Amino acid sequence: MGDIKGFMKHRRELPRRRSVPVRLRDWSEVYEPFPEDKLRTQASRCMDCGIPFCNNGCPLGNLIPEWNDLVYSEHFKEAIDRLHATNNFPEFTGRLCPAPCEAACVLGINEDPVTIKQVEVEIINRAWEEGWVTPQLPQELTGKSVAVVGSGPAGLAAAQQLTRAGHNVVCYERADRPGGLLRYGIPEFKMEKKVLDRRLEQMEAEGTKFEVNIDVGTDITAADLRENFDAVVLASGATAWRDLPIAGREFKGIYQAMEFLPWANKVQQGDISEHPFSAEGKHVIIIGGGDTGADCLGTVHRHGCASVHQFEIMPCPPDVRPGVNPWPTWPFIYRTSSAHEEGGERVYAINTTEFLGDSDGNLRALQTVQVEQVFEDGRMSFPAIEGTEETYEADIVLLAMGFVGPERGKLLEDLGVEFTDRGNVARDEHWMATEGVFVCGDMGRGQSLIVWAIAEGRACAASVDEWLMDETLLPSVVTPTSMSLA
User: Fold this and answer.
1) Are the beta carbons of 283 and 394 closer than 8 angstroms?
2) Residue 271, class by beta-carbon neighbours within 10 Å (0-12 exposed, 13-18 middle, 19+ buried)?
3) In the chain, what are the domain boundaries?
4) What pLDDT shows up at residue 4?
5) Residues 224-229: what's their mean pLDDT?
6) Residues 300-323, buried b or exposed e (16+ Cβ, 10 A)?
7) Domain 243-401 has CATH 3.50.50.60
8) pLDDT attached to residue 483
9) For the residues 113-142, what does the mean pLDDT come to?
10) Among candidate residues 86, 240, 234, 208, the one with its CA nearest the CA of residue 152
């Protein structure tokens, strides 16, 4: 603990976002640089608690007080070593994680919590700039081979850990580039893809092989995997999206978020010159108030939409924690992302009852009604409030209502896996779904946070390594039944 009064002397401070008119003209990340002196000041607010609840709040078990103190003391090289000890990809979590560690920060009981996420991303940014992030080659090769299906954060974490353990790892991706949702779900303004690409280059240098444009289950069968690999890790995510099957769903102009977002990234990568259904000049409604909805919001702003509303069926959350949501649980409070700061109207406690179209089959409006949140017999429902019907003009609707589990297809059928009552792939306490087949990330957990995906990938890799070699030195801090403070 570098400054024993740091938390008393300094207030929480984050980097400024670039002005809205400026950042809407490009797709670069929205934050301005954060001076090192301010970073050290923020790190000094960490109290090095006797019981560091931030560690428990983080599924990765990040050693937060340790690297806060190292940053304050200007020992950045040691700080990245401690950060990498628990997290393969702090540049991803430092940009994209909602920071359950900060929700669990002891200072957050009655003050603003430590800026843990910002310190994390500044450590890894400094490490890349200084050339401290280098390939970590295995000390010896085992002769064992592992197929990892899916190259999102869970698959990448599992692949890197298993490669470093000496196994021959091939990571399969059905898209044209590796990265999963990091590549084609996260907009450029939240994480520029050069951040992903440099980490993939490190993994390739370590020995991980990436095979893209491969639909595992069709191009490569389950039998092929079992014949050619000693173990298989399924990390394909929960990509079966939730739909809204109401009257008028067939009208043109209604898209799933993950039908819309990837094209924006393809434009930024230079693959295509323009988005095939751009929101430029259009009236847009986004149904879903979560992070994916916010990603759609920031994207349509940059397209130059005429107007945009973001619908959420839940009531507007409070500005501060209610008594039933105490520290250190995840606070369900009103939050404003950079995309919300850029414009648009958020509408809460609303339900869409019908899509309206014109004679040519094009969407023209939505019929809606205000709803009330009701709990009865342990179940939540949203009955309509009589007399609150309203029509909203819309040329484009983006459905961002989450995901219901993994896509079921030939691969899972042929591997003979079972499913939980929530529709996820079932796995035992060793992450195994069926003999030699392991599952990690959203495919087994359900839609969750990037930090959980990485934690599960790391833990799954340890179980795979132990199953192959009868022992493992790989770390594992979570189990398939772990629950977070969030």
Assistant:
1) yes
2) exposed
3) 6-130, 145-239+404-469, 243-401
4) 83
5) 98
6) bbbbebebbbbbbbeeebeeebee
7) yes
8) 55
9) 97
10) 234
- Under the banding of pLDDT at 50, 70 and 90, the label for residue 485 is very low
Residue 423's pLDDT band (cuts 50, 70, 90) = very high
Strand partners of residue 474: none
Task: Return the axis-axis angle of helices 36-43 and 64-72, rounded to nearest 10°.
Answer: 140
How big is the CA angle at 127 (ends 63 and 81), to the nearest 5 degrees?
Answer: 35
Distance, CA of 299 to CA of 290 (rounded, Å):
14
**Pair of tokens at residue 115:** 């800026």
Q: What is the pLDDT of residue 223?
A: 97
Residue 61 CB: number of other CB atoms within 10 A? 19
Phi then psi for residue 196, to 5 deg, are -70, -45
- Write the CB contacts of 465 (distance below 8 Å, at least 6 apart in sequence): 161, 162, 165, 167, 472, 474
The pLDDT tens digits of the residues spanning 318-348 come to 999 888 999 988 999 999 999 999 999 999 9
Answer for the pair 168, 144: CB distance below 8 angstroms, yes or no: yes
Q: H-helix or E-strand containing 240?
A: strand 240-241
Closest C-alpha to 459, from 474, 445, 443: 474
Closest Cα to residue 396, out of 235, 287, 270, 291?
A: 287
Nearest 5°: the CA angle 429, 435, 438 is 55
Asked whether residue 156 carries a pLDDT value surpassing 80, the answer given is yes
Residue 122: name the closest of 55, 224, 34, 47 by CA.
Answer: 34
Instruction: Please check whether the two domains, 145-239+404-469 and 243-401, share a CATH topology.
Output: yes
Does residue 170 carry a pLDDT above 60? yes
| pLDDT band at 486; cut points 50, 70, 90 | very low
Mean pLDDT of the chain: 96
Specify the CATH superfamily of domain 6-130. Alpha-helical ferredoxin (1.10.1060.10)
> If we measure between CA atoms, which residue out of 426, 472, 161 comes closest to residue 171?
161
Query: What sign results for the dihedral spanned by CA atoms 432, 434, 439, 443?
Result: negative
Nearest CA-CA partner of 352 in 363, 367, 341: 367
| Domain at 145-239+404-469: CATH architecture | 3-Layer(bba) Sandwich (3.50)
Q: Is the dihedral of CA 180, 185, 190, 193 positive or negative?
A: positive
Distance CA 181, CA 449 (A): 12
